[in-house]
Amino acid sequence: MEQHLFVLLCTMAAAASFFLVIPTNYLQHLPIYINVCVAVFGTFSLVLLNEACKGRYHTKSLFFLFMALLNLIWFPNGASEGSLPFYFFCLLMYLPIFFRGRARWLPLLLTVIDGVALMALELRFPEWATPFRSEQDRVSDNIVGFAVTALSCAVMLWTLLRNYEEERNRLVSVNEQLQRVIVERSAVEGALLQNRELLNSVIDGTIDAVFVKDVSGRYLLFSKGACQMTGKTLEQVLGRDDHALFPPEVALEVLRMDREVLEGNQAHTLEWELDGVNGERILLEVIKGPLHNKEGQVVGLFGIARDVTQSRRMAEELRLLNEDLERRVAERTARLEAAMKEQEAFSYSVSHDLRGPLRHINSYGAILLEEFGPALEPEARGYLERIRTSSKRMGDLIDDLLELSRIGRSELNKATVSLSDLAFGIGCKLQDAEPARRVDLLIEPGMQVQGDRLLLELMLENLVGNAWKYSSIRERARIEFGCCRHDGADAFFIKDNGVGFDMAYQDKLFGAFQRLHGAEFEGTGIGLATVKRIVERHGGTVWANGVVDQGATVYFTMPNG
């Protein structure tokens, strides 16, 4: 603000000197000495203006230059009868704007002393003052002085008020922003506290021993699982090193391994035998790794210890069992075949037995919502809806898993199948189910393969259904089913303009229960696994390409014969 005002004042001082004061003095026939002084002042004002444009602001120079001008022309310009006393108001307003702290009081005192001294000299030596030639000249000079003073003071006052208004608005904006930051910070702190409580619940809920140490080996965190495994309490462990847990020789060995982890700055996995609480030797699988701060510096060590005694015992028993089974290959084959038959019967039995409880869950959930819904809290009704939704999803998963398992067991009844006709029929069903959707379904005619019609129809239902589902975000969807050449062989493709997917996750695309999209799209994650199983049973391969928000294309080969 001061720099902008200083440039403006220098401009006004030069302009007023050359275009207002000097012409007025000339018309009033004042001594040439006055105009010379005013011209010198205007010239220096231009010099200061040029310096200000270069970023150098000589505010004190303008002050003392103006004061010197007033002193030099006080008596030749009519003294107190002229316009010069008005200009002292400019000095008094100039001081608080461009001077700070103690540097303000000395020029203020100097200005007051100078004004009083000039008035005293005029009283003592009135003959020094050069009177105006006429009353009209005196009035004209006072008018010019008043106008210049009023304009200068108005500019400085206007600049101060505008700066005050801008600063007030800025403070209001900063205060509003600060309020938003406080609200956001409170929300973040609440989320961090919730996450910390959740993390502590998970750590305390696991049977594994979870611990954290500082670089000196003192324990900072010791989970309930660790307390149960060692028979120690938190008060006995926190703030102490491994000497509080183990015998001296064992503690030294543990601390030595900790130093290796910290110095190597990488995680280690090791096995450790420990005397359990009941006196039995237990085998632990321990993972230790370094902890880093946000600057990447190692500030501690974390560890997870799991009791693998029982699993190792079971592994040893399994090894002995496998050795025995190797000696009885024929019996194992017979048992395997019997187990496969039992598994098939078991799958159907499980599917039937699981559907009964699911139906009961849905039925009783509906009864609760119908009869007691108005009395329940909205949160309770939401939970009931989630229960019913989850039970329906579980039923869908059971059906999909059974369908996936049947694909591997069923025999292939190969025949000539028109993929074009199958895709057209599936598209018509989808369009009938959602008549409001605008979908361009482009199917290349005459595409035929040798394969099992039922399995191929199931495969196309999944592929066309996926394209239909993931292109639902488009106002006008486009689904294309055609044939192309790939590595010298025919390959079929189904292309859509839907949400697409990130190619970094293409390896997960055809795995069971692997979904690359959220709950906004229905599905169980079995569809593409089913497609892959069917294609591979026919001796083909399947893959996909996609771009996020630009659509996806699924390719598959289907050798004839």
From TrEMBL:
All residue ranges annotated as the Histidine kinase domain in the record: 349-561
Its recorded reaction(s) are: ATP + protein L-histidine = ADP + protein N-phospho-L-histidine
Transferase recorded as keyword: yes
> Membrane spanning segments where?
5-26, 32-49, 61-77, 83-99, 106-123, 143-161
- Report keywords, A-Z: Coiled coil, Kinase, Membrane, Transferase, Transmembrane, Transmembrane helix
Superkingdom, taxonomy of origin: Bacteria
Mind telling me what this protein is named?
Answer: histidine kinase
What is the source species? Answer: Geomonas subterranea
